[in-house]
Amino acid sequence: MNTTKSKVLLNNFNSNIGLERGASKLKEMFWYLIKILFFLSALPFPSGFKVWLLKIFGAKVGIGIVIKPRVNIHFPWKLEIGNHAWIGEEAFILNFEQIKIGNNVCISQRSFLCGGNHDYRIPSMPYRNGPIELQDGCWVGANCFIGPNVVIGYDSVITVGSIIIASTEPNKVITQRPENKIRVRWR
Hints:
The protein is α/β, with parallel strands linked by helices. It has 3 helices and 17 strands. The chain has helices at 6-11, 25-39, 47-56; strands at 60-61, 66-67, 72-73, 79-81, 86-87, 92-94, 99-101, 106-107, 112-114, 132-134, 139-140, 145-146, 150-152, 157-158, 163-164, 172-175, 181-184. The longest helix has 15 residues, at 25-39. It starts with 5 loop residues before the first helix and ends with a strand.
């Protein structure tokens, strides 16, 4: 019979190690209420209204932003969005650390920018979070995963369903399916 150490690891899990929330519990709770009402809703609240709410909670947001319904933004006070960016339906921005979205960036439907992770090698499973930066002109295709400590170079395209856990060079098209391919975007 095999024995697992996972039970021991989960019993020792401490959700506070390595996470700097960046705001008071009251502010965080109020954000969650606003997020449920206006961001996670299927109702198409105007993007300008959502941008205004993000700014109230400390986000740095440019002009011409489109935020579609059901967008999940974890900590707006750790978010920066440039001008003329587009965030598609059901995108998830888990920004335990700073996430910077440049100018003219598109984040397509159901993409996941995941700035949080755990160190599974340590029984208390502390966070090992990292920032994410999408430089100007990037396009993140639908259902992509972008991990912590990643910079997507300017004018790059991450194609549908790709998993990115390392930074990319500028002006590249990165395809994960059917095989990993990298090619130049603009010649």
